[in-house]
Amino acid sequence: MFKRISLLIGTVVLAGGFLIVFFGGTWEGARIGLEILGAIWLLQTAYSVIVQERKEKEQEHELKKITDKYFRDNLE
Question: How far apart are the first and last CA of the chain?
Fold first, then answer.
């Protein structure tokens, strides 16, 4: 358990250091970097949800076609 916590703390420290160095060397730069990365994360999440919903609708439509093809004659 302590290995996981130390790994998490180390990752946060390294990510914070990277943000400060890469985005101007100040806390303001790190904040801007976090905002940019947060916006990218939100866009990726929204895109994946939209793609997943589209795939589910296509699968439902194909399943309805197959169901109608094989079982519609039996119902009439």
Answer: 63
The two structure tokens encoding residue 7: 């790994």
In this model, does residue 57 exceed pLDDT 70?
A: yes
For residues 49, 52, 56 and 61, what is the CA-based torsion angle, rounded to 10 degrees?
A: 100
Q: Which two tokens stand for residue 55?
A: 């795939």
Per the prediction, the chain carries an average pLDDT of 85
Q: Are 22 and 30 in contact (CB under 8 A)?
A: no
pTM of the model: 0.59
AA letter at 51: V
